[in-house]
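Hi U.,

Before I forget, here's the chain from the pilot set. I'm dumping it here mostly so it's searchable later in email.
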Amino acid sequence: MLIQLLVFFLLCRITLEENCYHNHSAGHDHYDCGCCSQISNNNGNAIGYHCHKDDQDSILKYALERESAFSECVPNGFEVKYSIKEFCCFWSPNLGCTILVNEKYFVDKAVCNRCKYYCQRTSGSERSSNYPQKLIMELSLLLIGSNYIQN
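Structure:
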């Protein structure tokens, strides 16, 4: 049993370049942490998460900063309520971009790419905060242009 655990740990370390998987045990229903340090976290001081559609109800967010059971990849204030069937991405200033992933993806070297969009969006930037105004302006111009063409 000890040799099997050692082999598993070594395989996980080899699988991800960052050597980030931790905590794997039967008690965690075969899902675990992965760090995605090769993916930059552009969310500033924001703390958040996004889960696969099959895992949307798996994460509970608390108002208090309770420490997570998966402190390597889940920021304080979050709890894993149900088993992870696919993946959940997390981002925070302290942890960066991380993923909680089902064991079927442990050998997937590109597993962190599932979190790239969510970690690299710039939710607090001026560019994204102006997006609704730009969209309204473009739709207004489109509407005016279509009325002008019809007349």
